[in-house]
Amino acid sequence: MLWAICCIDKPNSKALRAEHQQRHSAYLKEKDGVIFFTGPLQSDDGSENIGSLWIIVANSRSEAQAFVDGEAFCRAGVFESVSV
User: Fold this and answer.
1) I need a surface site. Which of 24, 60, 73, 76 has the fewest CB within 10 A?
2) Model's pTM, two decimal places?
3) 23-34, pLDDT tens digit by residue?
4) What are the φ/ψ torsions at residue 40 (nearest 5 degrees)?
């Protein structure tokens, strides 16, 4: 089953996002087998990332939640909100 996970960054989290970018990328590479689609959410003018969107294959909401809970930006506190 496909699950959409939409994450919105906290205000002024650009530096925190940059600090954890390498771990974020490594995690997504590790989880490549369950990722259907992934991409950043951008500001209206496209000048900065303001969140993340993932569509993943998971058997349950708890599996989808575990995916996002293990992700570097989530663990670092970058996100203001997460919707599964």
Assistant:
1) 60
2) 0.91
3) 999 999 999 999
4) -80, 150
